[in-house]
């Protein structure tokens, strides 16, 4: 057998060459390289294959616009196959709505006009094709995992998405995704060289004119398509919109059509008429201070009454506690703005009284307006009457930008999972809702008076596994013929059952406190189960359920309510009239032009001149919210036998991270009183601090600083210039606000 001899690398010689390298040598190297490349290209152009293809290239260049449109049609069809997870459904979409299909293809075609601006046209075509296909793949995969299509607002929340990605992707899927991305990137890079260049005369002025013309043609065609009702610029349900109007149009619309466009007739005079010369901005109540009850809202993730599905059967009632409430207290259908997902939009409607109908398609105000600007809400409206305002959620503080949004809405505290000792998770990785009971109680203890408490649960979150994860389910489900579907429903219904237990325990907890309280439970949207209207007793996909429990003797009044109406309804029953939008609903709900004037009012408050506030101002206060309600404290430090250190204190969680002299350390959470430092060696004079850290390394709350001295911890005096504890997440925002004020 012939031996293989490996030549030993001449490392010494290599560095010798580098040392003796001159600028002229470098120039000569690149000159030779350029010449070799020229010769290779010349050889390719004059090769046998190239000569045969020249007539083909000339033909394709002459009719490139036609071929671009054909390519656009092919790409659009591939995108719809991926989005609909079916070749046949994509074909049905093409045949059934050809105008919509070819309209979307024209959008892709318009983007291909930019290839005429460059010589590497093959590469440009490949890059654009990969771009569109990548968007389509993202959409298809997101529809599998969460039912909500991929839109531009998802790009703004990529960090939050990464934080919960483990709940949607398995380790194998992560590996395959990484390999796929690397492979595509390498192939695209290789095509930069292999794709060749256009050798004809460049007409860049004409090309620029062509790009502008293409964009203008698409805009004009879009206006015509909307006018002829081929597509719509309002998405009542974003998932259905993507099915009806195609991915390219819907995605691009979510990029450019955001916020609320100025309605026809908007003026100072109109707003004065709508608001009664600003009187709607006033806050008042018929209740005396001691008569005002606590007001609590609990948003149950993906909750609705499962018995609403006509073909499902259960071994026992999955919601006995809520069922009893439905029978004894005010209840009805709750109209959510979305189906299967869109928690934050339901939340926005409830807290602000504003309808999502008037926003751009695919809009999430939590990711846009409310993330950066103050907005009137139930928290600010009740705060004007002396209420404390508390928010809680057993998921990350940064998710849907809630830490920033709740601060802009006027909440006093926000307790996210970073401040909770979550000991139990669902089989698919979400925190169970029972953990909320303790922290709701603690939040209410922060004030001596009445509280507004807004709680968002997460236990019922999808996706729902098609394999059997619960061995001995409390509720056995029958009805679905498919085994996977039955397993998914059984999993979901048992999560709902545990949510019902949480609701019952919360009511008992409130009764034990003995404080007058109104408590509202509602579901934010239907679960991601592929339900159709015909499957439901209400025959409406936007309906979940709500109930208004109380211990103050409110009259039972069953009615169906929209998400943006329920807060005003509760306020009215309590004789509370605060918050411009809520006052509007109370005064105008049964009047002519109710919806049209609501759009004008929403525009005025968010994007307009805020004429509604000119006379009496608003309830909005500058952000003052603190994350969590309790400080982390340190008591002692003990050196273990293995040389590691243990910190003892109070209020530790899994998100408590140790900082030594300002540097984050590797630490292990043992329990709420102990954190272990494995690698750090403490020396006299070291400064120790424990911070509550969220996703993207956001520091939500800092403990006091402690100095290590001879085996003991000595608390240091607070820095007078230090940001108020619990407001660390907003320190940069505060600085920006101060700068803006100075600039003004």
Summarize the model shown:
The protein contains 25 helices and 23 strands. With 744 residues, the protein is of the alpha/beta class.
The CATH homologous superfamily name of the largest domain equals: Alkaline Phosphatase, subunit A
Mean of all residue-level pLDDT scores: 87
Rg, rounded, reads 31 Å
* Helix coverage percent: 40-55%
Distance between the termini: 84 Å
Main beta sheet: 9 strands, mixed
Q: List the uncertain runs.
A: 735-744
Strand order of the largest sheet: 11-4-10-9-2-7-5-6-13
CATH classification, class level of the largest domain? Alpha Beta
Name the shape in a single word: globular
Count of helix runs: 25
Strand content bin: 5-15%
**From the coordinates shown, what is the CATH architecture of the largest domain?**
3-Layer(aba) Sandwich
| Strand segment count | 23
Alpha-beta classification: alpha/beta
